[in-house]
Every structure is written in structure tokens, then in C-alpha cells.
Specification:
heterodimer, A: alpha+beta, Chemotaxis protein chec, 7 strands, B: alpha/beta, five-stranded parallel beta sheet
Amino acid sequence: MFELPTTEKLTDLVASILADATFVFVEPVQSDAWHQSDALCARVVFGQGKDVELVLRAAPALAPTLAANLLGIEPESDEARESAADAVGELANMLAGVLAVAVFGPETICRISIPEVALEVGQSLVPIPEPDACRTVLLTEDGHYLSVALRIEADA
Amino acid sequence: MSYRILVVDDSPVVRHMIRKAIEISGLDVGEIVEAADGSEALSAMEKSWIDVVVADINMPVMTGAEMVKEMVAREFMATIPVIIVSSEKSARRLAELKALGVKAYLNKPFRPEQIKQVIGDVLLERKEIERV
């Protein structure tokens, strides 16, 4: 048996990883406040037996900054733009590592999938339909949105 | 003596981060070789001398854990120290890898000074073993 973390716990974990890895500082906001339609979206599945899906959505304008801060380069550089998708995927990977312990405990060896990253065009942030899910929506100091959602996957 | 370090991760961003941390560390590094998965890494180890392997766990084709097991089978672990850099934080996974002979384990996200410290310690240990 396992449980997803509370929204507050998820928010704290995401904010901590963002600060440590990318020096991006965020505050939680109301989830219906994000009306931006495009997002760079990274999906990772982790678990042992029953799996948890993690979806990280970052505003496209934020992603080069994440890459630049990971790499120690200028966010306006070509390298930052070219590395943006990989950076969002790697951030999702780091979050999965932390959340795997939060959900399944430190003694469980979880599978963590390779992140799949795609640009979602025209998708708006929808309310969470299922009870077995949680999400946090965060706003950076520069006014960019980022969200992390967790959902327990249905049995195959 | 300049060391050859093999960096193994499917993420180009992470390989770049580790490469950069090594380059600014002041360690005596002659060459940094890169591989995107465990299978590429084993090919690199077979082609030329490698002093230290810095590897992720979760990779396509061949994971870091599978790579370490294959290194044990080919007796590479006797001569090539392995440092794991991973987002996985399971204490059981760490114990499993250490039992296989992995020298050190760093969690992601890491700081450049942590990479420097861990690689430096492993290279120093290797130097002392060679002296004996």
C-alpha cells in the first residue's frame, strides 16, 4: 500500500529540487490561475508493481533558463535553447527520484522510466479529475508557470 | 599522470554538467570520454584505458546497474573504479551497488564540488593502491 504525497509536500519537494538544481525559486499558486496553453511536458513513470505517473509541465519560455542554470551558461545562448527539452526531462528524472522515496519509502528499489519530453501546443491546464492524483502549480520570480502532477496508473 | 574519465548518462545535459565540473575541478584529467548508455560504456572500456567511470543508473539499452554487473563479469571492476551519479535514492539500490564494488554514489542534483571531491578521493585511493 502506498499513498501519493499531499499537495503541500509535493510543492515543498518540487521547490527544493528546483532551487538546488536550477537556482529557480518558486511560489505555489492556485491551479486555475495558469491559462497558458503551451507547455514543454516531461513524463516519467516510477514504481514497483503499481506505478505512479509524474508529469512536469514547464512554460516554454522557462525551459532555456532551466537548461542554462544546470549548465552554467547564458539562457539566451543557442546551447541553452537546444538543451531546454533535455533539461526539463532531467528535472523530471530528479523529481522522480525524490518522489519515489516519498511514495514508496527508502528501502524500495523503484523502476524509473526514461523521461519522455514533448511540446504540448494548445493544451490548457485541466482540473485533476481523479481522486488518486495530486498536482502543484508554481510561479517563478520571473512570472513563468511550472506544474507537477502525480497520478497512480491504472493496472495494466 | 593524466587520468581518462568515462562519463555515462543518456542525458547530454547531465554529461555536460559532469564534464564541466571535472574540467573546473583542478584534477589532473587528460581526457573525458562520453557514453550514452551502459553498452556504449563497455565498448569504450574495451577500446582504451579508462581510469574512472562516472555513470547514471537509469539509461536505455543497458542500465548503469546492468553495466556494473557486466563489468564484474568481465573483471573490469578489479581495475576500473565506478562512481554512480543518479536520481535514484533507494538505500537498497545503493547497498546492492556497493556490494558489487561501486566506489561511491552521488545523488542528483549534485554540486560541482561534490563531483570534484568524489572523483578526487577515488583517484587518490587508486594511486595509493598502485603504489603498494
